[in-house]
């Protein structure tokens, strides 16, 4: 930019204003950009089809064990997470996540321990790299028996 100096000298002063203060350079490119999009099916649905209490001996009676049989539709999951909450499904009591390997169909059994009798909300989430699906159920655990 060119401007007049404010001192008594009437000669013009030249000041340089840097266009890019960080010192980098600008690159301008013209042309076309191409990309491809892969549409994946994902995990579409999860169902808890059975809940079974595991009978234990008296020496093992500190925890009640329950098996959950779970199926899903869509792509095969790579991990399963189980959240055990209070009966309102608002306050989490425990979260357990495990990797799984399924080869041809989505049918798995998940065993979880319950420390004391009561009613619980169970959220079972199956996931893979691109999707997640959830199934919920209320379960009543009565000292080694579940309904």
Strands, helices and their partners?
Layout: E1 2-4, E2 12-14, E3 43-54, E4 64-74, E5 79-85, E6 92-99, E7 107-114, E8 118-127, E9 132-142, E10 145-146
Antiparallel strand pairs: 1-2, 3-4, 4-7, 5-6, 5-8, 8-9, 9-10
Q: Quick gist of this model?
A:
This protein is mainly beta and 147 residues long.
How would you sum up this structure, described in words?
By secondary structure, the protein is an all-beta fold. The protein has a domain at 43-141: Sandwich (Immunoglobulin-like). It is 0% helix and 51% strand. It has no helices and 10 strands. The chain has strands at residues 2-4, 12-14, 43-54, 64-74, 79-85, 92-99, 107-114, 118-127, 132-142, 145-146. A 5-stranded antiparallel β-sheet has the order 6-5-8-9-10, with no helix packed on it. Strand 5 and strand 6 form a beta hairpin. It comes from Setophaga kirtlandii.
User: Which word captures the global form?
Assistant: elongated
Order of helices and strands: EEEEEEEEEE
Mean pLDDT: 82
CATH architecture of the domain at 43-141: Sandwich
How much of the polypeptide forms β-strand, as a percent range?
over 45%
Spatially, the strands of the biggest sheet line up as 6-5-8-9-10
Number of helices: 0
CATH class of the domain at 43-141: Mainly Beta
Question: Low-confidence stretches at least 5 residues in length (pLDDT < 50)?
Answer: none
Termini gap = 83 Å
The largest sheet is:
5 strands, antiparallel
CATH-level-4 superfamily name of the domain at 43-141: C2 domain
Find the CATH topology of the domain at 43-141.
Immunoglobulin-like
Helix percentage: under 10%
